[in-house]
């Protein structure tokens, strides 16, 4: 099979397969684009039905990172890594040390950090063996800043729909209360919003029940059917399909999951339903902004001001979508491609 036959391949610059049978370490690093001799993208550790699924995921996620850099006015390329979680997989020091070796083999072209399944303790170990791990929890926790970015994207969407950006007396559904979803939940509760959550992980649900007893818990398979003002998917990819969007009962979709749409047509169908959709690589770009701020030794003030810009970008995009009668995912993609192909200084939103 040629790499071009993989459905998610899109002129990627490099795809690296890595493997160590003894450590049950197996996965891919995909580099979609390279700017300023550098590509950024976090590392994901999770289960896949097959290696082809893992490869498709890393290809889509790395492309998504290119788009995320573009909408954030970040002059680096997009990349991603996935480590395939197996029954025998165990993130021992040797396991992480060997993964750091594979990262190092790219000689600094790829800088990475924590995504799903990679935690602060893993990052501390990885940093001992690679200078290309740029997440620094002592300065900026990327999952927190991802949630802050989503918060401002939601705030902007509320203003667009309700003519005010207050969370009080509005209802929010969060699918997935891991690192990002949990931080988003806290921010919404702090601003007096009503919240419904779901997660496949029973331990996370127990934590929510204990910490936030007023939060409503529902089954993760049905949370998208809840009548809410904002539905915020913060779990994994392909959240929306032609089948399940028929059940949507929200006014706004704005969340942290990557590659939420199964394909571009889904964005058009959501648009026709009259639901506001904020493309994920705009709404969840706060984490990338925090990583780059750490890498470039920027201040917290610089970081927060850059993340706050998500508010105006979202509002301008929603206005443009209504004015031109074109779904947000289509408009934003066109602007990103124009930005990349013409090497523009800033994206025009």
List key phrases describing it.
globular; 6-stranded parallel β-sheet; 12 strands; alpha/beta; 6-stranded mixed β-sheet
Polypeptide structure, described:
The chain has 349 residues and is an alpha/beta fold. Helix content is 42%, strand content 15%. It is built from eleven helices and twelve strands. Strands 1, 2, 3, 4, 5 and 6 form a six-stranded mixed beta sheet that branches. Strands 9-8-7-10-11-12 form a six-stranded parallel beta sheet, with helices on both faces. α4 crosses α5. The longest helix has 25 residues, at 300-324. It is globular and about 55 Å long. The model has no long low-confidence stretch (mean pLDDT 94).
Task: Kindly summarize this structure in a few lines.
The protein is α/β, with parallel strands linked by helices and 349 residues long. The protein has helices at 51-71, 93-104, 120-129, 142-162, 179-190, 202-211, 264-272, 280-283, 286-295, 300-324, 328-341, and strands spanning 14-20, 25-31, 39-40, 43-46, 77-84, 110-111, 171-175, 194-198, 216-217, 228-233, 250-253, 276-277. The chain is globular, with a radius of gyration of 19 Å.
């Amino acid at each position: 099979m040629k790499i071009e036959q993989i459905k998610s391949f899109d002129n990627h610059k490099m795809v690296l397969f890595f493997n160590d049978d003894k450590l049950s370490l197996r996965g891919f690093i995909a580099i979609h684009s390279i700017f300023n001799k550098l590509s950024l993208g976090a590392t994901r550790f999770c289960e896949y039905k097959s290696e082809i699924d893992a490869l498709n995921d890393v290809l889509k996620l790395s492309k998504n990172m290119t788009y995320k850099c573009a909408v954030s006015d970040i002059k680096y390329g997009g990349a991603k890594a996935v480590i395939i979680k197996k029954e025998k997989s165990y993130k021992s020091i040797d396991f992480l040390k060997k993964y750091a070796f594979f990262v190092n083999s790219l000689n600094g072209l790829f800088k990475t950090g924590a995504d799903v399944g990679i935690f602060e303790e893993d990052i501390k170990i990885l940093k001992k063996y690679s200078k290309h791990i740029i997440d620094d929890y002592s300065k900026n926790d990327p999952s927190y800043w991802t949630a802050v970015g989503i918060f401002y994207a939601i705030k902007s969407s509320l203003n667009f729909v309700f003519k005010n950006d207050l969370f009080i007396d509005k209802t929010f559904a969060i699918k997935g209360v891991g690192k990002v979803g949990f931080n988003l939940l806290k921010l919404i509760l702090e601003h007096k919003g009503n919240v419904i959550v779901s997660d496949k992980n029973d331990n996370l649900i127990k934590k929510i029940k204990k910490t936030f007893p007023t939060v409503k818990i529902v089954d993760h398979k049905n949370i998208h059917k809840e009548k809410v003002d904002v539905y915020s998917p913060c779990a994994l990819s392909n959240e929306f399909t032609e089948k399940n969007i028929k059940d949507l009962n929200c006014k706004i979709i704005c969340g942290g999951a990557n590659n939420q749409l199964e394909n571009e047509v889904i964005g058009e169908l959501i648009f026709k339903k009259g639901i506001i959709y904020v493309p994920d690589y705009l709404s969840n770009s706060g984490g990338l902004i925090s990583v780059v701020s750490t890498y470039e030794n920027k201040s917290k003030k610089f970081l927060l001001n850059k993340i706050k810009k998500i508010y105006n970008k979202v509002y301008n995009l929603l206005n443009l979508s209504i004015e031109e009668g074109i779904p947000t995912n289509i408009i934003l993609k066109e602007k990103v491609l124009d930005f990349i192909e013409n090497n523009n200084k800033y994206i025009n939103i």
